[in-house]
Amino acid sequence: MTTRERMPPRAAQPATRDPRRPSPRPLESEYRPRVPTDVGRAVRPQQRGAHDPSQLEHQGVIWRATRTPEGVATLALRIERGLVRAAAWGAGAAWALQQLPRLCGADDDPTGFEPHRHPLISDTHHRHGDLRLGRTDLVFDALISAVFEQKVTGLQAFGAWRMILTWCGERAPGPTPRPMFAPPADWHLIPSWTWHRAGLEPPQSRTIVEAATRRASIERAARDPASADRAVTSLRGIGAWTSAEMRIRAFGDPDAVSVGDYHLSHQVGYALTGRRVDDDGMLELLEPWRGHRQRVIRLIGLSGRIEPRRGPRLAPEDHRGR
């Protein structure tokens, strides 16, 4: 009778093993702001909700998946005191690292800003003098993300954004902490039923599809906020609110005011006067800071002076099952 040598059992693979191939070494860079800068507050406003598949923060690192002019890139930022360490993967990695200082607020110049015109703004600016407005320089994707947020709650807009990018976007390269996706290359090829499944209303999806057919001309006009504003507001379905949101995200426009926002005028009025105002009243209150009105709005958001909630949150209807 013969015996067989028993082979040792094969080690079980951990359930969390990443099935992707190991990522190549990233391009790496460091950015040291010339002036004290709260880099986190410059970058985080680009995130569209807590579950945005194109930007997230994990264990102290901000991850971004973008479609740059040179291709898709993943950018990882570790923010330290006076230093930002960056790594980038993908075809657009070099572009993403070159654009990094602007994303972190390097082009934002507060010269001429006079916070002393109101005690709340003066006090908040004293506590947050390192506030800078970041920019992505990606006009078209900033425009499309703003269209998602037209006339709906943030919950609806962010949910639709998450679904469309996950279903139709391009998987981000690199060792992202969870699957991430850059915006689609061909928004106009997304079928109507996909928009419907994501919960985006027909007026918004039509606006996105029509804008996508003119993407090249929109991006050619993106030399500065003024020319980009003229280009996008000539499109059907895009007005002052959407253009302002686009300029804030793409250019870090320090003077943009999102007129027509459901909450903004109330927030500005309450913070500066203790009572609600309409859009005209908001513009009148912000006029002394013309040139820096978006900076004032950001400072109001940081001030902690928020109007008490008067009722339950709006519960939007879901028409996808009809």
Automatic annotation (TrEMBL):
Molecular functions per Gene Ontology: alkylated DNA binding; DNA-3-methyladenine glycosylase activity; DNA-7-methylguanine glycosylase activity
Swiss-Prot/TrEMBL keywords: DNA damage, DNA repair
One GO biological process term: DNA alkylation repair
Residues passing through the membrane, by range: none
Signal peptide: none
Example of a GO cellular component annotation carried by this entry: cytoplasm
Name assigned to this protein: DNA-3-methyladenine glycosylase 2 family protein
Biased composition (Basic and acidic residues): 17-35
Stored InterPro entries: Alkylbase_DNA_Glycosylase/TA (IPR051912), DNA_glycosylase (IPR011257)
Disordered: region residues: 1-56
Keyword DNA damage: yes
Keyword hit for Zinc: no
